[in-house]
Design a protein that fits this description.
GO terms for molecular function: ATP binding; ATP hydrolysis activity; transmembrane transporter activity. This protein is of the alpha/beta class. Helix content is 27%, strand content 26%. It has five helices and eight strands, in the order βββαββαααβαββ. It binds adenosine-5'-triphosphate.
Length: 196
Amino acid sequence: MNAAPLVLDSLTVARGDRVLFERLDLRIAPGEVLHLQGRNGAGKTSLLEVLAGLRTPEAGRFSGPEPEQLHWIGHKNALHPALSAVENLAAWCGLHGADTAGIPAALDRLQLKAARQRPVRTLSTGQKRRSALARLLLQRRPWWLLDEPLAGLDVEGAALLAGLLAEHCAAGGGAVVTSHQALPEEHLPVRHWSLR
Ligand SMILES: Nc1ncnc2c1ncn2[C@@H]1O[C@H](COP(=O)(O)OP(=O)(O)OP(=O)(O)O)[C@@H](O)[C@H]1O
């Protein structure tokens, strides 16, 4: 995978009249997972939005991937409640030019065999999260930007995600992950970084 680093150069971001961080320098290299930590309201989601190109910083420079080179999975799962996991993923494939043939394997990997044909509204919180995370496997993209991906996942689900991240990094990809929980770190090239 051919991934360029994410480079933040003297970046300042504000929300309303509150400056969240000022003149921030940070370089995130392919092959690593940056575990972005910080208290509620510290600005983790706001920073992730800058990395995804969804928010313009007040000052400074950011160089990073084009939209088609990154997977963004935010707080919300972006699943249609009336459609099944399979149908949701098929719609995602249609929007992004991905092959729907990969859907069964992706859902198997996320251990969603039993639940995949039911309307998403009938799934548990963790099953919905797993359905959203299955997108990561449908199209190879160098950067994964994941906002609280562990929210709602059980221990097995967290280990599963750590396995996906480890494989992704071994293939030359990179990831930025916000979480208030510890990431299962075995075999995971993780760097911890805190916003104050
Ligand atoms: N729409 C908005 N308008 C103005 N300020 C906002 C808006 N959304 C968030 N903020 C403020 O921006 C700051 C950073 O929010 P952000 O969501 O980036 O924090 P976070 O570190 O991700 O928090 P959490 O751990 O609670 O998810 C907070 O102080 C919040 O009150």
